[in-house]
Protein backbone atom coordinates (compact mmCIF):
# COMPACT_ATOMS: atom_id res chain seq x y z
CA UNK A 1 0.00 0.00 0.00
CA UNK A 2 1.22 3.48 -0.84
CA UNK A 3 -0.16 6.74 0.51
CA UNK A 4 0.15 10.16 -1.09
CA UNK A 5 0.70 12.98 1.37
CA UNK A 6 -0.42 16.37 0.07
CA UNK A 7 1.30 19.20 1.90
CA UNK A 8 -1.00 22.17 2.41
CA UNK A 9 1.14 24.01 4.97
CA UNK A 10 2.18 26.96 2.80
CA UNK A 11 -1.53 27.64 2.12
CA UNK A 12 -3.81 26.24 4.83
CA UNK A 13 -1.00 26.33 7.38
CA UNK A 14 -0.04 29.94 6.88
CA UNK A 15 -3.39 31.52 5.94
CA UNK A 16 -4.45 31.86 9.57
CA UNK A 17 -1.14 33.21 10.89
CA UNK A 18 -1.59 36.80 12.08
CA UNK A 19 2.04 37.87 11.62
CA UNK A 20 3.09 38.26 8.01
CA UNK A 21 5.71 35.73 7.01
CA UNK A 22 8.16 37.36 4.61
CA UNK A 23 7.82 36.34 0.96
CA UNK A 24 11.47 35.24 0.87
CA UNK A 25 10.85 32.99 3.86
CA UNK A 26 7.77 31.40 2.30
CA UNK A 27 9.76 30.68 -0.85
CA UNK A 28 12.70 29.27 1.12
CA UNK A 29 10.34 27.05 3.12
CA UNK A 30 8.60 25.67 0.03
CA UNK A 31 12.01 24.99 -1.50
CA UNK A 32 12.90 22.97 1.59
CA UNK A 33 9.60 21.08 1.42
CA UNK A 34 10.34 20.20 -2.21
CA UNK A 35 13.39 18.23 -1.05
CA UNK A 36 11.66 16.01 1.50
CA UNK A 37 10.16 13.47 -0.87
CA UNK A 38 6.74 15.16 -0.89
CA UNK A 39 5.15 14.90 -4.34
CA UNK A 40 2.46 17.55 -3.88
CA UNK A 41 2.63 21.02 -2.35
CA UNK A 42 -0.20 23.55 -2.22
CA UNK A 43 1.91 26.66 -2.30
CA UNK A 44 -0.54 29.51 -1.82
CA UNK A 45 -4.00 30.81 -2.67
CA UNK A 46 -5.06 33.43 -5.19
CA UNK A 47 -7.91 34.81 -3.09
CA UNK A 48 -8.73 38.41 -2.24
CA UNK A 49 -5.84 39.85 -0.20
CA UNK A 50 -8.30 41.59 2.09
CA UNK A 51 -9.81 38.23 2.98
CA UNK A 52 -6.45 36.49 3.49
CA UNK A 53 -3.73 39.14 3.97
CA UNK A 54 -1.06 36.54 4.76
CA UNK A 55 -1.18 35.24 1.18
CA UNK A 56 -1.27 38.61 -0.58
CA UNK A 57 2.10 37.69 -2.11
CA UNK A 58 0.65 34.64 -3.90
CA UNK A 59 2.02 35.47 -7.34
CA UNK A 60 5.50 36.24 -6.13
CA UNK A 61 5.71 33.07 -4.08
CA UNK A 62 4.21 30.83 -6.74
CA UNK A 63 6.33 32.20 -9.55
CA UNK A 64 9.64 32.27 -7.69
CA UNK A 65 9.83 28.86 -6.02
CA UNK A 66 12.37 26.37 -7.37
CA UNK A 67 10.45 23.58 -9.03
CA UNK A 68 11.61 20.04 -8.37
CA UNK A 69 10.74 17.41 -10.93
CA UNK A 70 8.14 14.97 -9.69
CA UNK A 71 6.50 17.51 -7.40
CA UNK A 72 3.07 18.91 -8.29
CA UNK A 73 2.71 22.55 -7.29
CA UNK A 74 -0.87 23.67 -6.70
CA UNK A 75 -2.74 26.79 -5.64
CA UNK A 76 -6.20 27.45 -4.26
CA UNK A 77 -8.42 29.64 -6.47
CA UNK A 78 -11.94 30.90 -5.74
CA UNK A 79 -12.85 32.36 -9.13
CA UNK A 80 -11.65 33.42 -12.58
CA UNK A 81 -9.50 36.22 -11.25
CA UNK A 82 -7.74 33.80 -8.93
CA UNK A 83 -7.27 31.34 -11.77
CA UNK A 84 -5.62 34.03 -13.90
CA UNK A 85 -3.02 34.51 -11.16
CA UNK A 86 -2.42 30.78 -10.80
CA UNK A 87 -2.02 30.35 -14.57
CA UNK A 88 0.31 33.33 -14.80
CA UNK A 89 2.47 31.67 -12.15
CA UNK A 90 2.26 28.40 -14.10
CA UNK A 91 0.85 26.26 -11.31
CA UNK A 92 0.53 22.57 -12.24
CA UNK A 93 -2.85 22.21 -10.57
CA UNK A 94 -5.54 24.48 -9.16
CA UNK A 95 -7.88 23.71 -6.29
CA UNK A 96 -11.40 25.12 -6.19
CA UNK A 97 -13.30 25.14 -2.93
CA UNK A 98 -16.78 25.42 -1.53
CA UNK A 99 -18.68 24.27 1.50
CA UNK A 100 -21.38 21.69 2.13
CA UNK A 101 -22.82 24.24 4.57
CA UNK A 102 -24.78 27.16 3.15
CA UNK A 103 -23.71 29.50 5.96
CA UNK A 104 -20.02 28.62 5.87
CA UNK A 105 -20.02 28.96 2.08
CA UNK A 106 -21.40 32.47 2.41
CA UNK A 107 -19.01 33.48 5.18
CA UNK A 108 -16.01 32.06 3.31
CA UNK A 109 -16.63 33.05 -0.31
CA UNK A 110 -19.57 35.43 -0.09
CA UNK A 111 -21.94 33.34 -2.19
CA UNK A 112 -24.72 30.82 -1.77
CA UNK A 113 -23.98 27.23 -2.76
CA UNK A 114 -26.08 27.58 -5.95
CA UNK A 115 -24.34 30.83 -6.90
CA UNK A 116 -20.95 29.14 -6.49
CA UNK A 117 -21.37 26.44 -9.17
CA UNK A 118 -21.27 28.71 -12.24
CA UNK A 119 -18.22 30.50 -10.84
CA UNK A 120 -16.42 27.19 -10.35
CA UNK A 121 -17.58 25.90 -13.75
CA UNK A 122 -15.86 28.82 -15.43
CA UNK A 123 -12.67 28.17 -13.46
CA UNK A 124 -12.67 24.42 -14.15
CA UNK A 125 -13.40 24.84 -17.88
CA UNK A 126 -10.66 27.39 -18.31
CA UNK A 127 -8.15 25.42 -16.22
CA UNK A 128 -8.83 22.36 -18.38
CA UNK A 129 -8.30 24.38 -21.53
CA UNK A 130 -4.91 25.31 -20.09
CA UNK A 131 -4.21 21.58 -19.49
CA UNK A 132 -4.27 21.87 -15.73
CA UNK A 133 -5.71 19.33 -13.34
CA UNK A 134 -8.32 20.55 -10.88
CA UNK A 135 -8.90 19.54 -7.31
CA UNK A 136 -12.19 20.29 -5.56
CA UNK A 137 -12.48 20.84 -1.83
CA UNK A 138 -15.71 20.40 0.05
CA UNK A 139 -15.55 22.01 3.49
CA UNK A 140 -17.54 21.27 6.66
CA UNK A 141 -18.26 17.69 5.56
CA UNK A 142 -18.32 16.45 9.14
CA UNK A 143 -19.75 19.51 10.85
CA UNK A 144 -20.09 23.27 10.50
CA UNK A 145 -19.29 26.00 13.05
CA UNK A 146 -22.55 27.79 12.11
CA UNK A 147 -24.99 24.99 11.22
CA UNK A 148 -23.73 22.05 13.24
CA UNK A 149 -24.29 18.68 11.63
CA UNK A 150 -24.36 18.60 7.83
CA UNK A 151 -26.52 15.94 6.21
CA UNK A 152 -24.86 13.27 4.08
CA UNK A 153 -27.30 14.16 1.26
CA UNK A 154 -25.85 17.66 1.15
CA UNK A 155 -22.27 16.33 1.06
CA UNK A 156 -23.18 13.90 -1.74
CA UNK A 157 -24.97 16.60 -3.71
CA UNK A 158 -22.07 19.08 -3.59
CA UNK A 159 -19.53 16.34 -4.36
CA UNK A 160 -21.56 15.07 -7.33
CA UNK A 161 -21.88 18.56 -8.76
CA UNK A 162 -18.14 19.13 -8.46
CA UNK A 163 -17.34 15.88 -10.29
CA UNK A 164 -19.93 16.78 -12.96
CA UNK A 165 -18.17 20.11 -13.39
CA UNK A 166 -14.96 18.21 -14.10
CA UNK A 167 -12.79 18.07 -10.99
CA UNK A 168 -10.16 15.32 -11.06
CA UNK A 169 -10.04 14.76 -7.32
CA UNK A 170 -12.27 15.55 -4.37
CA UNK A 171 -10.86 16.56 -1.00
CA UNK A 172 -13.27 16.14 1.91
CA UNK A 173 -12.62 18.75 4.57
CA UNK A 174 -13.14 18.35 8.30
CA UNK A 175 -12.76 22.11 8.53
CA UNK A 176 -13.16 22.47 12.28
CA UNK A 177 -11.89 19.07 13.36
CA UNK A 178 -15.08 17.52 14.67
CA UNK A 179 -15.03 14.18 12.83
CA UNK A 180 -14.67 10.87 14.60
CA UNK A 181 -13.58 7.56 13.06
CA UNK A 182 -17.06 6.01 13.00
CA UNK A 183 -18.52 9.09 11.31
CA UNK A 184 -15.65 9.04 8.80
CA UNK A 185 -16.38 5.44 7.91
CA UNK A 186 -20.12 6.01 7.64
CA UNK A 187 -19.58 9.03 5.40
CA UNK A 188 -17.08 7.20 3.22
CA UNK A 189 -19.36 4.20 2.92
CA UNK A 190 -21.93 6.45 1.23
CA UNK A 191 -19.44 8.34 -0.94
CA UNK A 192 -17.61 5.21 -2.08
CA UNK A 193 -20.87 3.95 -3.60
CA UNK A 194 -20.61 6.91 -5.98
CA UNK A 195 -16.95 7.84 -6.41
CA UNK A 196 -13.79 5.76 -6.51
CA UNK A 197 -11.33 5.83 -3.61
CA UNK A 198 -8.50 6.91 -5.95
CA UNK A 199 -10.35 10.17 -6.59
CA UNK A 200 -10.94 11.04 -2.96
CA UNK A 201 -8.66 12.68 -0.41
CA UNK A 202 -9.32 13.38 3.25
CA UNK A 203 -8.41 16.73 4.76
CA UNK A 204 -8.49 16.59 8.54
CA UNK A 205 -7.99 19.39 11.02
CA UNK A 206 -6.83 18.24 14.43
CA UNK A 207 -8.83 20.42 16.82
CA UNK A 208 -9.68 17.53 19.12
CA UNK A 209 -6.67 15.34 18.43
CA UNK A 210 -8.65 12.91 16.31
CA UNK A 211 -7.02 13.41 12.94
CA UNK A 212 -4.72 10.37 13.05
CA UNK A 213 -7.55 8.13 14.24
CA UNK A 214 -9.59 9.47 11.34
CA UNK A 215 -6.75 8.73 8.93
CA UNK A 216 -6.63 5.17 10.20
CA UNK A 217 -10.39 4.83 9.71
CA UNK A 218 -10.04 6.19 6.16
CA UNK A 219 -7.15 3.85 5.34
CA UNK A 220 -9.35 0.94 6.30
CA UNK A 221 -11.90 2.17 3.77
CA UNK A 222 -9.26 2.24 1.01
CA UNK A 223 -8.45 5.96 0.99
CA UNK A 224 -4.80 6.64 0.12
CA UNK A 225 -4.58 10.43 -0.25
CA UNK A 226 -4.33 12.70 2.78
CA UNK A 227 -3.81 16.45 3.13
CA UNK A 228 -1.67 17.67 6.00
CA UNK A 229 0.31 20.66 7.12
CA UNK A 230 3.83 20.52 8.51
CA UNK A 231 4.04 20.96 12.27
CA UNK A 232 0.24 21.08 12.50
CA UNK A 233 -0.05 24.68 11.34
CA UNK A 234 -3.39 25.77 9.98
CA UNK A 235 -7.02 26.78 10.11
CA UNK A 236 -9.66 28.71 8.22
CA UNK A 237 -10.21 32.30 9.44
CA UNK A 238 -13.85 32.08 8.31
CA UNK A 239 -14.61 28.98 10.39
CA UNK A 240 -14.44 29.83 14.09
CA UNK A 241 -12.92 26.97 16.04
CA UNK A 242 -10.84 25.73 13.12
CA UNK A 243 -7.43 24.97 14.53
CA UNK A 244 -4.37 23.32 13.04
CA UNK A 245 -4.39 20.74 10.30
CA UNK A 246 -3.27 17.18 10.77
CA UNK A 247 0.53 17.51 11.09
CA UNK A 248 2.49 16.13 8.15
CA UNK A 249 5.29 14.99 10.45
CA UNK A 250 2.86 13.03 12.65
CA UNK A 251 1.21 11.51 9.58
CA UNK A 252 4.53 10.50 8.02
CA UNK A 253 5.67 9.05 11.36
CA UNK A 254 2.53 6.96 11.70
CA UNK A 255 2.58 5.70 8.12
CA UNK A 256 6.27 4.83 8.29
CA UNK A 257 5.86 3.00 11.59
CA UNK A 258 2.94 1.07 10.10
CA UNK A 259 5.08 0.02 7.13
CA UNK A 260 3.00 2.08 4.71
CA UNK A 261 5.10 3.75 2.05
CA UNK A 262 4.65 7.46 1.41
CA UNK A 263 8.08 8.42 0.09
CA UNK A 264 8.51 11.32 2.52
CA UNK A 265 11.60 11.47 4.73
CA UNK A 266 11.06 12.51 8.30
CA UNK A 267 14.50 14.03 8.85
CA UNK A 268 14.42 16.83 6.24
CA UNK A 269 10.74 17.31 7.09
CA UNK A 270 11.68 17.91 10.73
CA UNK A 271 14.34 20.41 9.70
CA UNK A 272 11.83 22.27 7.54
CA UNK A 273 9.36 22.31 10.45
CA UNK A 274 11.90 23.74 12.87
CA UNK A 275 12.91 26.34 10.32
CA UNK A 276 9.38 27.69 9.80
CA UNK A 277 8.70 27.45 13.53
CA UNK A 278 11.46 29.96 14.10
CA UNK A 279 9.98 32.36 11.52
CA UNK A 280 6.54 32.02 13.08
CA UNK A 281 7.97 32.67 16.51
CA UNK A 282 6.14 30.08 18.58
CA UNK A 283 6.35 26.31 19.04
CA UNK A 284 4.30 24.35 16.53
CA UNK A 285 1.84 21.82 17.85
CA UNK A 286 2.75 18.48 16.29
CA UNK A 287 3.49 15.54 18.56
CA UNK A 288 6.59 14.77 16.55
CA UNK A 289 8.11 18.21 17.12
CA UNK A 290 7.40 17.93 20.83
CA UNK A 291 9.37 14.69 20.91
CA UNK A 292 12.20 16.24 18.90
CA UNK A 293 12.35 19.17 21.33
CA UNK A 294 12.76 16.66 24.15
CA UNK A 295 9.50 17.59 25.85
CA UNK A 296 8.35 13.97 25.84
P1 LIG B 1 -16.30 39.18 -3.17
O1 LIG B 1 -16.08 40.42 -2.40
O2 LIG B 1 -17.68 38.59 -3.21
O3 LIG B 1 -15.73 39.30 -4.65
O4 LIG B 1 -15.33 38.09 -2.59
P2 LIG B 1 -16.33 39.97 -5.94
O5 LIG B 1 -16.30 38.94 -7.02
O6 LIG B 1 -17.63 40.64 -5.64
O7 LIG B 1 -15.25 41.12 -6.26
C1 LIG B 1 -15.01 42.18 -5.36
C2 LIG B 1 -13.60 42.71 -5.58
O8 LIG B 1 -12.66 41.69 -5.26
C3 LIG B 1 -13.30 43.11 -7.03
O9 LIG B 1 -12.38 44.20 -6.98
C4 LIG B 1 -12.57 41.91 -7.58
O10 LIG B 1 -11.70 42.22 -8.64
C5 LIG B 1 -11.80 41.47 -6.37
P3 LIG B 1 -12.88 45.71 -7.23
O11 LIG B 1 -13.49 45.66 -8.59
O12 LIG B 1 -13.88 45.98 -6.12
O13 LIG B 1 -11.62 46.49 -7.11
N1 LIG B 1 -11.48 40.02 -6.43
C6 LIG B 1 -10.26 39.49 -6.25
N2 LIG B 1 -9.07 40.04 -5.97
C7 LIG B 1 -8.01 39.19 -5.87
N3 LIG B 1 -8.10 37.85 -6.03
C8 LIG B 1 -9.28 37.28 -6.32
C9 LIG B 1 -10.42 38.11 -6.43
N4 LIG B 1 -11.71 37.86 -6.70
C10 LIG B 1 -12.36 39.02 -6.69
N5 LIG B 1 -9.34 35.94 -6.48
C11 LIG B 1 -13.97 36.11 -2.85
C12 LIG B 1 -15.32 36.77 -3.09
C13 LIG B 1 -14.12 34.63 -3.20
C14 LIG B 1 -12.93 36.76 -3.73
C15 LIG B 1 -13.60 36.29 -1.35
O14 LIG B 1 -14.67 35.87 -0.59
C16 LIG B 1 -12.36 35.51 -0.96
O15 LIG B 1 -11.27 35.82 -1.37
N6 LIG B 1 -12.52 34.49 -0.09
C17 LIG B 1 -11.41 33.63 0.29
C18 LIG B 1 -11.63 33.03 1.62
C19 LIG B 1 -10.54 32.04 1.92
O16 LIG B 1 -9.48 32.05 1.33
N7 LIG B 1 -10.78 31.15 2.92
C20 LIG B 1 -9.83 30.17 3.30
C21 LIG B 1 -9.62 29.09 2.31
S1 LIG B 1 -10.85 27.81 2.36
C22 LIG B 1 -10.29 26.74 3.59
O17 LIG B 1 -9.39 27.06 4.32
C23 LIG B 1 -10.91 25.35 3.71
C24 LIG B 1 -10.04 24.25 3.14
O18 LIG B 1 -8.77 24.22 3.78
C25 LIG B 1 -10.73 22.89 3.32
C26 LIG B 1 -11.22 22.65 4.75
O19 LIG B 1 -10.43 22.74 5.69
O20 LIG B 1 -12.41 22.38 4.86
C27 LIG B 1 -9.80 24.44 1.63
MG1 LIG C 1 -8.37 23.27 5.69
What is the name of the CATH class?
Answer: Alpha Beta
The coarse silhouette is globular
Classified in CATH, the superfamily is: Aldolase class I
Q: Average pLDDT value?
A: 97
- Gyration radius from CA atoms, angstroms: 17 Å
Structure report:
With 296 residues, the protein is an alpha/beta fold. The protein has a single domain, classed as Aldolase class I (TIM Barrel). Helices cover 42% and strands 15% of the residues. An eight-stranded parallel β-sheet has the order 1-8-7-6-5-4-3-2. β6, α8 (181-191) and β7 form a beta-alpha-beta unit. The structure holds 3-hydroxy-3-methylglutaryl-coenzyme A and magnesium ion.
Put the structure in a nutshell.
With 296 residues, this protein is α/β, with parallel strands linked by helices. The chain has helices at residues 9-13, 23-33, 58-64, 80-88, 102-109, 113-129, 152-165, 181-191, 211-220, 248-257, 266-280, 287-292; strands spanning 4-7, 40-45, 72-76, 93-99, 133-139, 169-174, 200-204, 225-228.
Offer a few descriptive terms.
single chain, 296 residues, alpha/beta, TIM Barrel, eight-stranded parallel β-sheet, 42% helix, globular, binds 3-hydroxy-3-methylglutaryl-coenzyme A, binds magnesium ion, metal-binding, metal ion binding
